[in-house]
Amino acid sequence: MSDDTLAALEREVVACRRCPRLVAWRELVAREKRAAFADEPYWGRPIPGFGDPDARLLILGLAPAAHGANRTGRVFTGDRSGDFLFAALHRAGLANQPTSVHAGDGLALHGTWITAAVRCAPPANKPTPAERDSCLPFTVRELALLKRVRVIVCLGAFAWAAGLRLLAERGFELPRPRPRFGHGDVWAPDPLAPVLLGCFHPSQQNTFTGRLTAAMLDALLRRAAELAGADWR
Predict the structure, then answer these.
(1) What pLDDT is stored for residue 230 in this prediction?
(2) Does the model's pTM come out above 0.90?
């Protein structure tokens, strides 16, 4: 590591070009744009994590949305999944406002850091396991720098798999068979390790069908608070 800080990690993430398929897609989307955002500049680069450096809670998503974070430059910002997530974080007292539309809109997180298993927008919102593993070293460093994290909320099965690999890279042994993903499921390999907490992803597919409701997400964030400890914020 040339510089062991979150700022240095952010610079490395933003400059990354490791995965040719993702580089080509994110840049194509940024050039062609969606008609609704035709007059806006697109970020079109990898997305760093953001939030409170003293976070007890780490939220691990899937990947940036093509016309969300790939446009705004901040994870979950400017898309429907983010609308659902930030509203819940605000209700829980973990965000100072319930919406996030662009990177300079004043959003601040309390006791929480948000990142993604894959840092570039993937075609059809489906990154490959190889792309996940290519991004893993960034997340390993990120977790090492976020020294107070006690709970990792994994948004979906893909993020859960990334969370398991993240803890394995930190030196914690994974059992066989590996713990399976489920909404509300909890797993920790060791009392000294962060706890993994599964959560259905706040995608429109899940929120529009009722698979994930606002009440379910509120309850899960309360559970995360309990697991993180009373003094987490």
Answers:
(1) 55
(2) yes
